[in-house]
Each structure stands twice: as structure tokens, then as C-alpha cells.
Amino acid sequence: WYDGLIGAVVGYGLPWTIGEVYWLLSNRDGLGLGDSKLLAVIGALLGIRGVVASLFGGALLGAVIGIIVLLRGQQA
Question: What region does 27 belong to: left with phi over 0, alpha with psi -120 to 50, or beta?
């Protein structure tokens, strides 16, 4: 249960911290807390390694899809 608790805290705390820093720098919302809640559940179920893996996997998948969309837009 300890790994799940630490994973949930890190999973919620990391996006929340990024959103708060953005708020302090720009004085507007830049990140909702839906992502934080989802990562908290992933952290509770899979631990901190699951949080890191899902963040890395999401960033990688987003980059691949973004590159494909950009390349298809240039060909059209």
C-alpha cells in the first residue's frame, strides 16, 4: 500500500505543481486537474514507476502522432 500511496501523491502532485507554476508565471490556467486525478489513480494502482511510464509513453505517443500530422499536412 505504501508504493500506491507514494505513486498517487506523485501522480497528482507533479501535474498540479506544473499547473501552479504556470499560473504564477502567466496568471492564467494552463492545466486542468483531470490529468492529475488520472495520474493519481495510475500511481495508486501501479506505483511511481507506473506514473513515470505513463508520462513517458504519453509524451512519446503524442510526439509520434504530432509528427505524422505535420508530415501529412505538408503533403496535402
Answer: left
